[in-house]
């Protein structure tokens, strides 16, 4: 992906400013770490990537915090372009035999041409996530202010702007309530009669503005089209202003407040989307109802309900990696200096920011977190703001289970249920197969056919990878009612591959064909291949987890035996001539055009899977390490995030931390801490949080592995509230690079083994029981 001239200038400017900054502070600070869970700045945002994000899972806003004029860029999570559609290509079954024949004859480029001509979706593109537009507040001609501070408090999900102008201190507080489903802003001053502003909308959408009263303004419109057809969604953003004192009037397409003591601004938004094939909703009725319920209540009442709901999720996990005086600097300055100063609290802030973002963009009943999470300023978002399911959507949810946010996976589970419906149609129409399939992208309308081009889209594994998240939700929560609910999805995904795997004539193994190793070109000038390593690894997990689910539920014994038998016929992991884990079933790695490719698809077996581990498969782990070394550390934001998790799984604390510092630097983190792909993609944020969790605690194979990749940059610290598979909660404290104590709480009385280095201690906790362990004579012992 190329970087624009503007991005290059931004990066170089940020680096050159370092020379102008005051000397770096390295001294230890005594301020509490909890004080640091704020992003704060001494100036308003000029760029979107400097603005601060708020969200309740469904509604999103980017707050700029201007003095003369403020902007709140708005999103609603169902505002995508287009209308319900099914792009599955009926030419698929006739084209498949010839495509496979060309692949097995080594005519990969010819196969790609045939796929582009006869096996891609129609249309070949999906729809884009879209902005509502901006809510603007104009205060006056002057931006001169003193004592300016703009902040986002992660513990409160509250944006605050304060400054002093003409002897008056002004404050603006904003949040988006997950309880009342509205954005709320309070404007106040320390002198009566000083709140005056004009409020209006700006939007790139085809939309109209209506003034319904001196208190209420409404933006309404229709979403953008797709593939030459009009959009099917109606949307509305309704704003009410309630001032205390002063006067309220109207201007041209704007509301006017003059001389008030304070004012509250409420914003509700909705579309006509009800389901991926139902656009019959009434956005006017929805916003009117939400406004009627919220706008008669006090700020304190609304905020208390909001804070209670946010805290119930956010406060489950605490983390402290230590603190230096660098943490006293504004956030943008800390990011700019991150490569040159000791700032462990910045990593802790980034960790909790990832959790904050997931809470803000994925809640039960909402759409899942997309490529931009929830926040997008454009009609045509980067890469459409879709759900890219060859890594990016999955990475969004890596932190959910281990950082105690399991409820937030509900939108992802629902997405899988929905694409199993459209994916069953795609499987039947394009492959003549049972079950269901999804390729490398989906969107609001749950399209599942291959898109973009054969080079990128010929990958039938997207739905199969998402099934790992379905299984993980069970593995952490051990809810058999949930497992029964999602078992048909696991079974349907497995059925598709039982029907479509074919025998490789050269090796006799069963392989996927056609497929790719996302999105990497091999030695023959294309990505098209058969049976790449990642496909085989994903299928081993899918088949194993489907079989385990059937066993737990005591059902489908015959089907269970069938998938396990097919699992044994897949191409095994292989070590190539350079000592690397092969990316393809043939040893092509060292002849690939891009040895530093951003995707590390063949390392799925190391993470997020645990088919490859340093203890169980040391030779394969060494080969995975060699592959990582060959790939290199610097890449796009999300790719660096994946590398952090992979190196942590290898137990390489220093290497992992060095890559984390790349992610936290100004080339890969914007001033507002959004991941700089560039441009912004949110997956890097979530990958970073997941990777830091993996550095501190890992759980797989009935083991809870403590401090597996602790770096010397964090010699003392703690993390509490982490979740391990089997229903365990883990609180860790360490000092001088050594475990001080770990407290384990068991929700279900499952068996597990504590692992610290080479020391292993079986756990035998009953349901609801907790125990604390420490070190005696270098070994783990129970202390309480």
Explain the overall architecture.
The protein has 784 residues and is of the alpha+beta class. The protein has three domains: 31-80 and 128-315, Distorted Sandwich (Beta-galactosidase, Chain A, domain 5); 364-617, Alpha/alpha barrel (Glycosyltransferase), CATH 1.50.10.10; 717-782. Helix content is 31%, strand content 23%. The strands form six sheets. The chain has a nine-stranded antiparallel β-sheet with strand order 1-6-7-8-9-16-13-12-11. α11 crosses α13 (533-553), α16 (637-649) packs parallel to α18 and α17 (653-664) runs antiparallel to α18 (683-696). It is globular. Residues 1-34 have low confidence and may be disordered. Residues 298-696 form the Glycosyl hydrolase family 95 catalytic domain. InterPro entries: 6-hairpin_glycosidase_sf, 6hp_glycosidase-like_sf, AFCA-like_C, Alpha-L-fucosidase, GH95_cat, GH95_N_dom, TAT_signal. Residues 39-275 form the Glycosyl hydrolase family 95 N-terminal domain. One of its GO terms (molecular function) is hydrolase activity. Residues 1-27 form the signal peptide.
Name the average pLDDT: 95
**Overall morphology:** globular
Strand content: 15-25%
Largest β-sheet summary = 9 strands, antiparallel
Helix/sheet category:
alpha+beta
Assign a percent range to the helix content. 25-40%
Number of strands: 30
- How many structural domains? 3
- Round the Cα radius of gyration to an integer and report it: 27 Å
Which spans have pLDDT < 50 for at least 5 consecutive residues? 1-34
Count the DSSP helices. 18
Q: What name does CATH use for the topology of the largest domain?
A: Glycosyltransferase
* Side-by-side strand order of the widest sheet: 1-6-7-8-9-16-13-12-11
CATH class of the largest domain: Mainly Alpha
**The CATH architecture of the largest domain:** Alpha/alpha barrel
């Amino acid at each position: 992906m190329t970087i624009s001239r503007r991005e290059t200038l931004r990066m170089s400017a940020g680096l050159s400013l370092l020379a102008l900054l005051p000397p770096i502070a390295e001294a230890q600070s005594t301020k509490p770490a909890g004080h640091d869970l704020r992003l704060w700045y001494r100036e308003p945002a000029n760029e979107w990537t400097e603005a601060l994000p708020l969200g309740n899972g469904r509604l999103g806003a980017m707050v700029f915090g201007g003095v003369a004029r403020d902007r709140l860029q708005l999103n609603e999570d169902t505002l995508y372009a287009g209308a319900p559609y099914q792009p599955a290509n009926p030419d698929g079954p006739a084209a498949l035999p010839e495509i496979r024949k060309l692949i097995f004859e080594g005519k990969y480029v010819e196969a790609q041409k045939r796929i582009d001509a006869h096996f891609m979706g129609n249309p070949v593109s999906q729809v884009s996530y879209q902005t509502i537009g901006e809510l603007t507040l104009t205060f006056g001609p002057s931006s001169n202010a003193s004592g300016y501070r703009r902040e986002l408090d992660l513990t409160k999900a509250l944006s605050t702007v304060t400054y002093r102008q003409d002897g008056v201190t002004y404050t603006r507080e904003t949040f988006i309530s997950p309880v009342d489903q509205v954005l709320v802003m309070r404007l106040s001053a320390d002198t009566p009669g000083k709140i005056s502003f004009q409020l209006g909308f700006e939007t790139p959408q085809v939309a109209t503005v209506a003034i319904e009263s001196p208190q209420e303004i409404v933006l309404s419109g229709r979403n953008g089209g797709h593939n030459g057809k009009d959009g099917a969604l109606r949307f509305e953003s309704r704003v009410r202003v309630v001032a205390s004192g002063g006067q309220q009037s109207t201007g041209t397409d704007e509301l006017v407040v003059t001389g008030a003591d304070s004012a509250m601004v409420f914003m509700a938004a909705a579309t006509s989307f009800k389901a991926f094939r139902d656009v019959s909703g009434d956005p006017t009725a929805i916003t009117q109802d939400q406004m009627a319920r919220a706008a008669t209540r006090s700020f304190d009442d609304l905020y208390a309900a909001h804070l209670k709901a946010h805290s119930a999720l956010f406060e489950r996990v605490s983390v402290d990696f230590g603190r230096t005086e660098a943490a006293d600097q504004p956030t943008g300055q800390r990011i700019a200096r991150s490569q040159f100063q000791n700032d462990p609290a910045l990593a802790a802030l980034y960790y909790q920011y990832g959790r904050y973002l997931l809470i803000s963009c994925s809640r039960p009943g909402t759409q899942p977190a997309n490529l931009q999470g929830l926040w997008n300023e454009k009609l045509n978002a980067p890469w459409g703001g879709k759900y890219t399911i060859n890594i990016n959507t999955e990475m969004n949810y890596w932190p959910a289970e281990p950082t105690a946010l399991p409820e937030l996976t509900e939108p992802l589970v629902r997405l899988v249920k929905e694409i199993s419906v459209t994916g069953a149609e795609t499987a039947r129409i394009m492959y003549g197969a049972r079950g269901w399939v999804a390729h490398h992208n989906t969107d609001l309308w749950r399209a599942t056919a291959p898109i973009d081009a054969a080079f990128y889209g010929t990958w039938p594994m997207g739905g199969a990878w998402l099934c790992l998240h379905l299984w993980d939700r069970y593995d952490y929560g051990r809810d058999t009612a949930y497992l029964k609910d999602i078992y048909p999805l696991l079974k349907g995904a497995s059925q598709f591959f039982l029907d479509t795997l074919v025998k490789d004539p050269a090796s006799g193994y069963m392989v996927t064909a056609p497929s790719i190793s996302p999105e990497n070109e091999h030695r023959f000038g294309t990505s098209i291949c058969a049976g790449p390593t990642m496909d085989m690894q994903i299928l081993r997990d899918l088949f194993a987890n489907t079989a385990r689910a059937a066993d737990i539920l005591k059902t489908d014994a015959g089907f269970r035996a069938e998938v396990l038998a097919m699992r044994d016929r897949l191409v095994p992991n292989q070590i190539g001539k350079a000592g690397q884990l092969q990316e393809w079933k043939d040893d092509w790695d060292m002849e690939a055009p891009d040895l530093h490719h951003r995707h590390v698809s063949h390392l799925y077996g190391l993470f997020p899977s645990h088919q490859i581990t340093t203890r169980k498969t040391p030779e394969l782990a060494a080969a995975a390490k060699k592959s990582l070394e060959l790939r290199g550390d610097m890449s796009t934001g999300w790719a660096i995030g994946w590398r952090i998790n992979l190196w942590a799984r290898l137990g390489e604390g220093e290497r992992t931390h060095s890559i984390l510092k790349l992610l936290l630097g100004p080339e890969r983190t914007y001033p507002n801490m959004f991941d700089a792909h560039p441009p912004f993609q949110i997956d890097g944020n979530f990958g970073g949080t997941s990777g830091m969790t993996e550095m501190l605690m890992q759980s797989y194979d009935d083991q809870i592995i403590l401090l597996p990749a602790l770096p010397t940059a964090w010699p003392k610290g703690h993390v509490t509230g982490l979740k391990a598979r089997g229903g365990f909660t883990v609180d860790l404290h360490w000092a001088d690079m050594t475990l001080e104590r770990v407290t384990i709480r068991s929700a279900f009385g499952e068996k597990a083994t504590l692992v610290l280095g080479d020391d292993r201690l079986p756990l035998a906790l009953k349901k609801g029981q907790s125990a604390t362990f420490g070190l005696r004579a270098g070994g783990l012992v129970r202390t309480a």
